[in-house]
Amino acid sequence: MEGLVLPQLFNGLSVASLYLLAALGLALSFGLMRVINMAHGEMLMLGGYLAFLTLSLVPGTGGILLAVPVAFVGAALMGALIQLTLVRRLLARPLDTLIATWGVSLILQQAARDLFGAVGVEVRAPDWLAGSVQLGSMAFPTARLFILLATLLVLGALALLFRTTRAGLHIRAVNQDRAMAAMLGINVGRVELMMFALGTGIAGLAGVMLALLGPVTPTVGQSYIVPAFLVVVLGGVGSIQGTTIAALMLGLVSAVAQIFVDVSVAQLLLLLFVILFLQVRPQGVITTSSRALDG
Amino acid sequence: MSGAALRLEGLAAAYGQSRVLDGIDLSLPSGGAMALVGRNGVGKSTLLGTIMGVRTQVGGRVLLDGRDMTGLSPDARALAGIALVPQGRQIFPHLSVMENLETGLAALGRRGRRAKLPAMLFDLFPKLRQVAGRKGGFLSGGEQQQLAIARALAGSPGLLLLDEPSEGVQPNVVDEIERALTLARAEMGLTILVVEQNLGFVWRLASHYAAMDGGHIVQAGATSGTAVEDVARLVRI
Asked: Are strands B67-68 and B159-163 parallel, antiparallel or unpaired?
C-alpha cells in the first residue's frame, strides 16, 4: 500500500496538470465572456493532431519543442476564427453560443475522422520522453514530468501576463466591468478575442501533452472536457487561482481513489466529491466577482 | 490634451421605443464648465451616456471640436478625448488604486501602453497616494469618487463628464473634489459637463448651467448672475 501512495500522488499531480491545461481556457472564456465553448475539447484534439503532424515531419527533441508552439498557435488561430465568426455575433445569446460551438465540435470531430481515420494515431515522441527518472526506489515517467513542467510554465506565463503587463491589466478590467473598461478606451472586442484565442491555444498545448500519454483520436478531447468543466465549476468561475486549486484537488482525489477502487468507481467518487464540495461551498474554491457572476 | 468644445445638435436618445431625450441643443466652449440640473428621471444621466456612446442615440449629432462622434463606440470616443465618471463610480473592485488609475491610460491609445501616470493626479488627490496599494473595492465612497475622477483624468481627456460626483460623499471630501476639479480645469484647460443635485457645490464649479425637464433643456445660461434658488424652483429640486 505505501509503495502505491507516492506514485499515485505523482500521477494525481500529472492528471491535475492535464485537467488544468484543459480547464484554463474554459475558465478564461467563461469568466470573461460568459461563453461556454462546447468545441473546447476539440482544441485539445487539434493540438494532439498538430503534435502528431509536427513529430512526423521533425522527429526527436526538436520535433516536440516545435510541436508546442505549433499546437498553441494552431489552436489559438482556430479559437480566434470561432470567436470572430460565431461567439462575437452571439454574445447576447449565451444559449445559442452553446449550440453553435457544439456544432463546431461535431464538425471538427468529423473532419478529424475524414483526415486521420477513426482509429487513433500515435505520436512518435523522442526516446527520453518514453523513459523514466529513478529517484530512490521510485520511477517517475519522464513524459509526466514534462507535462508537469509545461503546466508550471503556462501558469507562470499567465501570472506574468495578468500581473505585469498592460494587456493583462486590461483583461482584468474587462473581466470586472466590461462597460467601464470600454468607457476608459479599452478595446473590449480585441481583449475578448485575445482571451478566447489564448484559452484555446492553451487547450492546444494540453493536446500535445495528451498525445505524449496515449493515442490521439477524433474524440480524445471529449474525455477531458467533462473533468475540465468540473474543474471550472469547482474552482469558482473565472478565477485562475481557483481553477488551479480545483484541478489539483480533482487530480489528487481521482488518483488516490484509484488506489482503493477501479477507474469507473473512482470517476463516480470524483463526481460525488464535486457535488458534496459544492453543497458546502456553492461559489467554488475562490469567489470572484467577474461578469459571469454578476447576472 | 487641452479642452475640447462640445456641441449637441438635436440630440435624441431612447430606451427601446421610449424616447427619453429629444431635440437637445447645447454648446459648451473649450475649457468651459456646465452644470446640468434637474429632477431624477429627466434624462440627465442618459444625456451623459449618449455623449459617451453607451446609450442609444436615435437622432441628432454629438460634435467634439467639430468632429462628429455619432456611431463611434465608447472606446473610440474615449480615445477622441471624452471621459465619463459614472454615477456609482464603477471602480474595478479587485484592482488596486494604482491599477485602477493605469486603466485610465488606455484612453491615450498606443501612447498609453508605455505611459506613466501623470504626477499631477496625486497632487490633485493626495489621498490616493496613501491608499495606492489598496483594492478599489475596499475604499470609502469619497475615496472611490476621487479615484474615479483621477482615473478619468489619467487619460488626459478634453471633455470630462461627471454624473453626480457629490452623491454619497461627505462634505469635506466634496470640498476636496471641488478644489481638484477647479485646479484640473485651470491646468489642463479641461471642459466639464457635470450632472449634480447639490446646486451649491456645482454653482461654485460651473460657469454655465442647463436645466432639464422631461427630456428637454428648459433653460440655460451663465451661473453668475443667476440665483441658485430660482433654478432650483424651476426644476423643482
From this structure: unpaired
Q: How many pairs of residues across A and B have Cβ atoms under 8 Å apart?
A: 71
Q: What is the average pLDDT across A3-26?
A: 86
Nearest to B103 among A169, A288, A289 (CB): A169
Quickly count: other Cβ atoms within 10 Å of residue A81's Cβ: 13
> For A140-162, what is each residue's pLDDT tens digit?
889 999 999 999 999 999 999 99
Please give the backbone phi and psi of residue B220, each rounded to the nearest 5 degrees, phi first.
-145, 155
Bridge partners, A134 (sequence order) = A139
Q: What is the residue type of B76? A: A
The helix (run of H) or strand (run of E) holding residue B209 is strand B208-213
A248-260 exposure pattern, b = at least 16 Cβ within 10 A, e = fewer: bbbbbbbbbbbee
Q: Smallest CA–CA separation between B154 and chain A, in Å?
A: 10
Cβ pair A176:B93 closer than 8 A? yes
3-state DSSP helix/strand/coil percent for chain A, to nearest 5? 80, 5, 20
Can you list the domains of chain B with their CATH numbers?
6-235 (3.40.50.300)
Q: What is the mean pLDDT of residues A62-84?
A: 96
Question: Taking residues A48-70, what's their average pLDDT?
Answer: 94
DSSP secondary structure, B13-63, as one string: EEETTEEEEEEEEEEE-TT-EEEEE--TTSSHHHHHHHHHT-S-EEEEEEE
Assess B109–A contact: CB distance below 8 Å, yes or no. yes
On the question of pLDDT at A2 being above 60, the answer is: no
* Position A151, amino acid: T
Rounded CA gap, B26 and B159, in Å?
Answer: 14
Exposed (0-12), middle (13-18) or buried (19+): which is B7, by Cβ within 10 Å? middle
Of B115, B106, B96, B122, the C-alpha closest to B157 is B106
Residue B181 near chain A (CB below 8 Å): no
**What residues contact B100, with CB distance under 8 A and at least 6 apart?**
B91, B92, B136, B147, B151
- Give the mean pLDDT of A241-262: 89
The pLDDT of residue A126 is 86
Mean pLDDT of all residues belonging to chain B: 92
Rg (CA), chain A: 19
Considering only the beta carbons, identify the residue of A172, A186, A288 that sits closest to B106: A186
Above 90 in pLDDT, residue B164? yes
pLDDT of residue B227: 85
Q: Are A203 and A44 in contact (CB under 8 A)?
A: yes
Q: Which three cell numbers stand for residue B157?
A: 481627456
Mean pLDDT of A87-104: 91
> Who has greater pLDDT, A136 or B195?
B195
- Please return the burial class of A264, using the count of CB atoms within 10 Å of its CB with bins 0-12, 13-18 and 19+: exposed
**Is B237 in the A-facing interface, judged by CB distances under 8 Å?**
no
